[in-house]
Design a protein that fits this description.
The structure holds two protein chains of two kinds. By secondary structure, chain A is α+β, with helices and mostly antiparallel strands. Chain A contains 15 helices and 34 strands. Chain A has a six-stranded mixed β-sheet, with no helix packed on it. In chain A, strands 1, 2, 32, 33 and 34 form a five-stranded antiparallel β-sheet that branches. In chain A, a hairpin with a 4-residue loop joins strand 16 (158-162) and strand 17 (167-172). Chain B has three domains: 3-172, Beta-Lactamase (2-Layer Sandwich), CATH 3.30.450.70; 188-350, Beta-Lactamase (2-Layer Sandwich); 365-462. In chain B, 38% of the residues lie in helices and 26% in strands. Chain B contains eleven helices and 19 strands. Chain B has helices at 40-57, 115-133, 136-139, 145-166, 174-178, 188-204, 226-251, 256-265, 319-350, 394-403, 448-462; strands spanning 3-5, 8-16, 30-34, 68-70, 74-82, 85-92, 95-100, 103-108, 208-215, 218-222, 267-270, 283-288, 291-302, 305-312, 365-370, 375-378, 415-420, 425-432, 435-442. In chain B, the strands form four sheets. In chain B, strands 9, 10, 11, 12, 13 and 14 form a six-stranded antiparallel β-sheet that branches. A five-stranded antiparallel β-sheet of chain B has the order 3-2-6-5-4. In chain B, a hairpin with a 4-residue loop joins strand 15 and strand 16 (375-378). The longest helix of chain B has 32 residues, at 319-350. In chain B, 37% of the residues are buried. Classes of the chains: A alpha+beta, B alpha+beta. Chain A binds chain B through residues 393-395, 397-398, 401, 461, 464, 467-468, 470-471, 474-475, 497-500, 502-503, 506-509, 527-529, 531-532, 535-536, 538-540, 547, 554, 556, 558-559, 562-563, and chain B through 188-189, 191-193, 195-196, 199-200, 202-204, 206, 222-223, 370, 372-373, 410-414, 432-435, 465-469.
Chain lengths: 634, 470
């Protein structure tokens, strides 16, 4: 059991609370992620814990003559506690130093309707959802007053709430229509409604609807059974015009029975109680698409159980036993909360990426998957590294081509977003340029170079992988940077593919840079093509100084002089340097020509062919008269 | 009336002076002689004369110093490809009958046969043999000395008796000397696509060691060293593709449906034996580093793109190998071929001012050779496959061969030469950074300055993006 691969686990340090019993009731507020353990209706104490074990508020509340608590929630700053005990009334208890001020309670009572629940939308504002609509109230304890700020009237059957983005869905029309709303301070924004398809989808009961945010978009997830009795989750994304809901995804669960879901890192985890396994879905991955543009998804991998773990059992002293997973006592909250009130534990659900990498065998899908994960970069780099290293075989090249394209789509979008934000906002310092949001995982060429390619340098197949990557970069209009260019050049030289090297430079696939040219020159003794290519680069860069140095070092003094002559500062070039190089060639004709050239220059500049002291050319004047026996008129 | 008789091959022979040293056994020196139907005595005499010339020349030069002997009516070319093996080719000079003072006489034009060019032709004859059979030494095998000699003789006979028939002496020129090839220019994404396609073939089929990619008989990509490439290219475009075309035509309507299928997926030209192909993949010998290695040459074509694969020769490729290869390459090669076609269709409409066949002979022509990669571009040969009629008069192409000094050491130095030739032809040659540029201008009123300007204009136009002292 320990050896099996588990990619879902519950947090190691769950929040502990008094388990449900005859005396104790437990409530959970998913906005503040607080667990309320209410003993004896509050008389013997209420312990509030969350979002971590260290946040504890503990107090007592007299419940004489009062109904039992139906719902209980703190305001976001924990300064007001809202409690509902009867159908049509909510009471507000101010708190000071985490203790209730029981004589300053304000009560709101509605006339003749049923309050389904309430959510805090701001520190002093609460939205109360009742059978006849939604109303936002300002709770003013000092004035002992609850003041209506905004309301809408609607015959509501039930409602669902998503604390992320203050997003709620109100079921009307007997559960056939879902009305998404955004509840904020003083405002209620109604979004286009969602009419369920009859008879398959609706009417839908409250427990089958889950709200969440997936990839930054509000989503309504509805659990259904398909015609063959298997479970399906239909996902409406609120990304149409005016955030109109659109049916876009269907998750095929392949099981029947009871399901519950969590949303972790934009992945949908569907727990199946009967098989005690969880299925993982990613709506960003491709699936079958039907004519209506709805994508049908299969689980990313076959269902696996949550990683088992041991739990201390107080009744057995210090003994431990395996915690019961997928228990019928489990209650799930979004995005990733699992509560088992029978053992008094609240966990956060996490995904383990490494086992997933082993389970997703399709490399391209794995890369797509990891590109969307919050902490995917490190793992993705490892996956890429293994692919080019220990797992490499020739058949993988077409897959790598695909993988590189996936990486570079993200990379090039990011580059153009950056470019746009720079060009859209010229240096006006007033409003700080709004930086585009970086992608979740960005693997740029420097990452590839440093983490993926460098470890495989100088292998037989490295050049082929690099060219493949270069192709993908070019396809996405990304220039190769000097480090990568240099590595490609090095591999090409090592494999003696000088012709290809020259071609790549010609096509500007390896960008001209002095760095690249100098790197090539340092290998020029291997093959003249390398020198030729380097000279071409330098010419395009107009790096004539370097060209002159190279020509001189190759003993091509005449060539160098011809280049120098065409430059604007040709009259200031050092005669000594050229004469020295000319002498070194050992060819008297060359020396003669160079010498005469400089004599002419001297004449043009100073009216006399002679060198001046500053030229430091005495030794060459002597050398000249020595080999040509001509007396210098002095 | 004047008539001209073009040059012709008088004889072609290979001998080795280490054999038949004794008097009366001289015929043993001869390993191959063309024409075969000549009497032995003449053969022996020809060889003897050559030996004498070589021997005499060696007093003054190194052992392979003897290159050519030009006489009024003939030009005899010598080439020492391997130790002790001499190849000799004798050409009859072209001649013209002329009339002066009512008397007919014959004028021999020995000068029209450029020694450098025909030495290159002879060298090519050797390299073609080496491509298909390996070196002479590799074929000099057997139990006994006599058997060795006999084996080599047989090989030479089989190869050269056919090869000599295909030599087109008249259309040889400077490019035979340089052994450079004009590549098909491609846009960069296509270049990369082809590059990675070949990489994938080689990684998927490790037995495939080298590839050559052609489109419409034009070279696109090669991993073979330039000198081997030149021979392979000549074989592919000059022989194999011609034959394949004939087979296709012969198939006619009967195979229409079949070849439609074939054109979509591609088919083997050499490889598995089928009615479509030109038979089994031949064995070829190609240099790899400093060794000569043998490979099977598998040629595959889809649409107008062909790919020549050198498969290592441990064992003949199996049917399975071919069918896997076929299913791997077929779809991709077809798609690449149509992409190249599209890209050319686009550029052809976008660039009507392309220098094409219609240019009149007065407009300047150029030839641009990269000495290092042995690639050239230019308008000297209008058609890439070199039609039999060169666009320039013979004396101009010979002049270019004069200017191309194959003996010089490659240093890529700057050089400029301007030559005024007959009939108002000018040739400007410039060399820089291992690139050679020839411009040919025909202008009857030009001054040196005009020609320089004309050449400069072409340099500006054609030499972009590279370091070249203009």
């Amino acid at each position: 059991m320990e050896n099996a691969l588990h990619y879902i686990e519950l947090s190691k340090d769950p929040i502990t609370f008094d388990s449900v019993s005859q005396l104790t009731n437990v409530f959970f507020d998913d906005s503040n992620r607080q667990i309320f353990a209410v003993r004896s209706g509050g008389a013997t104490g209420i312990v509030v814990k969350g979002p971590t074990n260290n946040n504890v508020i503990s107090f007592c509340m007299d419940n004489k003559d009062k109904e039992i608590i139906r719902s209980i929630k703190f305001a976001p700053d924990n300064k007001i506690l809202a409690v509902q005990r009867v159908e049509n009334s909510v009471e507000f208890i101010p708190f000071q130093d985490n203790q209730p001020l029981l004589n300053e309670i304000v009560v709101y009572t509605a006339k003749s309707l049923t309050i389904f629940g309430f959510v805090w939308v701001h520190e002093r504002e609460i939205a109360i959802i009742s059978s006849s609509g939604v109303e936002i109230f300002l709770v003013a304890i000092d004035k002992k007053q609850v003041k209506s700020m905004k309301s809408i009237t609607l015959t509501i059957k039930w409602f669902a709430w998503c604390p992320e983005g203050n997003f709620a869905v109100l079921a009307t029309n007997n559960g056939m229509t879902l009305n998404p709303v955004i509840l904020k301070q003083k405002t209620i924004t109604r979004l286009p409604k969602l009419d369920l398809e009859t008879p398959r989808e609706g009417p839908v009961p409250e427990r089958d609807v889950t709200l969440g945010q997936i990839y930054g978009t509000f989503a309504v997830l509805i659990l259904l059974q398909n015609s063959s009795g298997l479970g399906e989750i239909v996902i409406y994304m609120l990304n149409g015009p005016g955030l109109a809901p659109r049916k876009q995804h269907v998750l095929r669960l392949g099981h029947s029975g009871r399901f519950a879901m969590n949303i972790v890192d934009n992945l949908i985890v569907v727990h199946h109680q009967a098989s005690a396994t969880s299925l993982l879905f990613d709506i960003a991955l491709s699936g079958e698409v039907d004519t209506n543009g709805i994508t049908y998804h299969a689980p990313i991998t076959p269902g696996r159980a949550i990683k088992p773990f041991l739990l201390k059992v107080p009744s057995l002293g210090e003994q431990t036993k395996y915690c019961e997973l997928y228990s019928k006592h489990w209650v799930l909250f979004q995005p990733n909360i699992v509560i088992d009130a029978s053992v008094g534990r609240m966990w956060y659900l996490y995904l383990q990426m490494e086992p997933l990498c082993t389970l997703i065998t399709d490399r391209v899908r794995l890369v797509e998957f990891l590109l969307n994960r919050t902490n995917g970069k490190r793992i993705l780099l490892n996956v890429l590294q293994e692919m080019v290293d220990s797992q490499y075989n020739g058949m993988l090249l077409p897959i790598m081509e695909n993988v590189f394209d996936k990486l570079n789509v993200v990379y090039s979008n990011w580059l153009s977003a950056q470019l746009q934000s720079q060009t859209a906002q010229p240096s006006s310092a007033k409003n700080l340029p709004k930086l585009p949001t970086p992608p979740k995982v960005l693997i740029d060429q420097n990452d590839m170079y440093a983490e993926v390619f460098t470890p495989i340098a100088e292998r037989a197949y490295t050049e082929k992988i690099l060219i493949l990557y270069l192709q993908s970069l070019a396809r996405h209009n990304i220039d190769a940077q000097p480090d990568l260019s240099k590595m490609i050049a090095a591999e090409l030289i090592r494999n003696e593919h000088f012709d290809t090297l020259q071609k790549l430079v010609d096509y500007a696939l390896l960008k001209d840079s002095k760095l690249l040219a100098c790197f090539l020159l340092s290998h020029s003794q291997i093959n003249s093509t390398i020198t030729q290519t380097a000279m071409d680069i330098l010419d395009r860069l107009k790096a004539y100084e370097l060209i002159l140095e190279i020509l001189l070092s190759q003993g091509k003094v005449i060539d160098a002089l011809r280049v120098a002559k065409s430059l604007p500062d040709c009259d200031t070039i050092s005669a000594r340097k050229y004469l020295e190089a000319a002498k070194k060639t050992g060819d008297p004709a060359i020396f003669y020509s160079v010498f005469l050239y400089f004599q002419q220059r001297n004449y043009r500049l100073r009216g006399s062919p002679e060198f001046i002291r500053g030229d430091q050319c005495l030794e060459f004047v002597q050398y000249f008269s020595m080999i040509f026996g001509l007396k210098q008129s002095s | 009336m004047t008539g001209r008789v073009e040059m012709s091959l008088r004889n072609f022979f290979i001998f080795n002076s280490q054999y038949g040293k004794k008097e009366g056994e001289e015929h043993q020196k001869i390993f191959f002689y063309h024409p075969a139907d000549i009497d032995l005595n003449t053969k022996v005499k020809d060889v003897g004369l050559c030996e004498a010339i070589i021997h005499f020349t060696n007093n003054f030069t190194s052992s392979d110093g003897c290159q050519a002997l030009n006489t009024q009516k003939t030009s005899q070319i010598f080439y020492l490809p391997e130790k002790d093996f001499w190849m000799v080719m004798t050409l009859n000079a072209p001649w013209e009958t002329k009339t002066r003072d009512g008397n007919e006489y014959t004028e021999y034009r020995g000068g029209d046969m450029h020694t450098t060019i025909y030495r290159a032709v002879l060298r090519q004859a050797y390299q073609m043999f080496r491509l298909f059979a390996g070196t002479f030494e590799m074929n000099f095998v057997g139990e006994t000395e006599a058997e060795k000699i006999e084996n080599l003789k047989k090989k030479l006979e089989v190869f050269y008796s056919k090869y000599l028939l295909t030599i087109k002496l008249k259309s040889c020129d400077i490019l035979d000397v340089v052994q450079s090839i004009q590549y098909l220019p491609l846009e960069r994404m296509l270049f990369l696509r082809i590059h990675t396609f070949i990489n994938m073939i080689e990684e998927t089929f490790p037995r495939i060691q080298k590839c050559i990619f052609l489109y419409n008989d034009q070279l696109v990509w090669s991993e073979v060293s330039p000198s081997d490439l030149y021979s392979i290219y000549e074989y592919l475009t000059g022989t194999l593709f011609q034959k394949a075309k004939e087979t296709e035509l012969k198939g006619g309507s009967l195979k229409r449906s079949y070849s439609l299928e074939g054109s979509r997926h591609g088919s083997f030209i050499t490889g598995p034996e089928s009615p479509d192909s030109q038979g089994k993949a031949p064995k070829v010998f190609v240099t790899s580093g400093s060794d000569l290695r043998s490979y099977y040459m598998v040629v595959y074509r889809a649409l107008t793109a062909s790919i020549c694969l050198l498969v290592n020769a441990e064992s003949p490729p199996t049917e399975d190998f071919y069918s896997e290869l076929h299913s791997f390459m077929g779809p991709q090669l077809s798609s690449i071929a149509s992409k190249i076609g599209e890209s050319y269709a686009k550029s052809a409409t976008g660039n009507p001012a392309k220098i094409g066949n219609e240019q009149d002979c007065a407009s300047p022509k150029y030839l641009f050779i990269n000495e290092l990669t042995l690639r050239h571009t230019g308008t000297v040969h209008v058609h890439p496959q070199r039609p039999n009629t060169p666009a320039l008069p013979l004396f101009v192409t010979n002049l270019i061969a004069d200017l191309y000094d194959s003996k010089r050491d490659l240093q890529g130095k700057y050089e400029e030469t301007v030559v005024k030739a007959l009939n108002d032809y000018w040739v400007v040659k410039r060399t820089s950074n291992w690139r050679e540029f020839y411009v040919i201008v025909n202008n009857n009123k030009a001054t040196l300055l005009d020609i320089t300007n004309e050449a400069n204009k072409l340099f500006e136009q054609q030499i972009t993006n590279v370091f070249f002292e203009k």
